[in-house]
Amino acid sequence: MTQSAETTQPPIKVLLADDQALLRSAFRVLVDSEPDMEVVGEAADGAQAVELAGATGADVVLMDIRMPGTDGLAATRMISADPALAAVRVVMLTTFEVDEYVV
User: Fold this and answer.
1) 3-94 fold
2) Which of the 8 DSSP states describes residue 86?
3) pTM of the model
4) Which residues of the chain are under the pLDDT cut of 70?
5) Where are the alpha helices (DSSP H) in 1-103?
6) Distance CA 61, CA 52 (A)
7) Which site in 14, 64, 90, 102 is 20 to 30 Å from 52, CA atoms measured?
8) What is the pLDDT of residues 44-58, one digit of tens each?
9) What gap in Å lies between CA 36 and CA 40, rounded to an integer?
10) Dihedral of CA 62/67/71/75: which sign?
11) What is the pLDDT of residue 97?
12) What is the pLDDT at residue 3?
């Protein structure tokens, strides 16, 4: 990104959704190291991710697939179905090598 683009564009607002606090911390370090991105919230489960996606005005959700309660797939469906969250993009994350999680 050019210097002029950095000064005219607001940062990309990122919501982190993972049940493991250590992974959320690692992703926070990565996102915070980018000048054009900022972490606007952290969720430990899918239901909290859906709530925070709207409350924080997130542009992007980095979403773990497997979480307790509402998992990442269900949370992504809820975000996609909500007209108020139509602009929110979800990037699914997993450490599992199982083809059934490919969407």
Assistant:
1) Rossmann fold (3.40.50)
2) T
3) 0.85
4) 1-7, 96-103
5) 3-8, 21-32, 46-56, 72-81
6) 10
7) 102
8) 999 999 999 999 999
9) 13
10) negative
11) 64
12) 54
